[in-house]
Amino acid sequence: MVPHPVAHMSEPRVLAEFTDYDGLIEALRRRKAELDLSFELIDAIGGLQSGYSAKVLGPGMIKKLGPVSAGAINDVLAVKFVMVEDVEAAEAMKTRWQKRGQRYSHS
Global pTM? Predict the structure, then answer.
């Protein structure tokens, strides 16, 4: 028996780049718009309280994204967070970084 060829998933697209909370929220809003999903559907699929995603992603940003809502909203929007080094920022900060024990001993 000949095995079926493995279907290869396409490479993931980079959907946004951000360095702060507002940028994260804007990226999630753009993804919601791209998928043309309602807040109600995000809440229902994500298991969130009715109206919750509108409070997080809506213009008023009444609530902040938290550990539970972040995972639920990411799942519904089919996105994940990836941390990458900002080479330019690292180069600029390098002279300010001190190894642990050189000045502070906080964990």
Answer: 0.80
